[in-house]
Amino acid sequence: MAADPQRDGADSFIYSGFIGGSRAMTSRVSPTGRTSPAGFAARSRQSRPERRFSKLSAAINQKATKLGARGRVTATDLAGVYYEADGLCQYCGFGVSWEGVSFDHKQAFAKGGSNTPDNLAASCMTCQRGKFTKTPEEWATAKDMTVACSVCGTSFRPRWADYMRGFGLTCSRKCSGTKGGQSV
Q1: Rounded mean pLDDT, 20-32
Q2: DSSP state of 180
Q3: Which candidate in 34, 85, 89, 175 could, as Cys together with 122 as Cys, close a disulfide (CB 3.0–4.6 Å)?
Q4: Are residues 131 and 155 in the same domain?
Q5: Based on the domain organization, do 115 and 85 belong to the same domain?
């Protein structure tokens, strides 16, 4: 598996091989013949996108484990989801760079979603944070929703949770304390 050794600038050689199109490091060999763990060499030779997707996958897996969701994702899975989306947010369609992409679970863990690549969507931070635990269909409805205040007629955006519970019918506390123009 070892390919041509490369100098890394620290008087040691790095032996690398390519597995499935991605760089995989096996070990670092010092001039004295000692080797360090493969993980150290892999971290030191990853490109910036590989390193970012590795950190994101670790954080996603940690959260999934904590919440008891099944499945695991890898950095390769995240890169696949990102490139499959052609660098666009899956919810609003705006372009997202690999440095700013966020990954959202289409079916939230709170609603029984799994931590698998087919449940992930590449998204911008605005959509990812706004969607929260909504399904993609609920998010499409919520992001453009406006309601007329039942008291004064002002158009406003209600909080989704309040709207779903039947609240969020008035634009302010002042209006919610007034019914039909009279104080309650």
Answers
A1: 42
A2: T
A3: 85
A4: no
A5: yes
- Whether residue 95 is found in the same domain as residue 171: no
User: What span, in angstroms and rounded, lies between the C-alpha atoms of 181 and 184?
Assistant: 9
CA separation, residue 129 to residues 105, 133, 172, 180 (Å): 11, 9, 24, 36
The span from the first CA to the last CA of the chain, in angstroms, equals 78
The answer to whether residues 116 and 102 belong to one domain is: yes
Give residue-wise pLDDT tens across range 106-142. Answer: 998 888 899 999 999 999 998 888 888 888 888 888 8
E-only strand ranges, 30-175 = 35-36, 102-105, 120-123, 147-148, 155-156
Residue 99 has pLDDT above 80, yes or no: yes
Question: Is-above-0.85 flag for pTM?
Answer: no
For the record, the structure tokens of 50 come out as 């590989």
Q: Are residues 30 and 59 in the same domain?
A: no
Is 121 strand, coil or helix?
strand
**Please, which residues have CB within 8 angstroms of residue 15's CB and are 6 or more apart in sequence?**
2, 3, 5, 25, 26, 27, 29
Domain that holds residue 37: 6-45
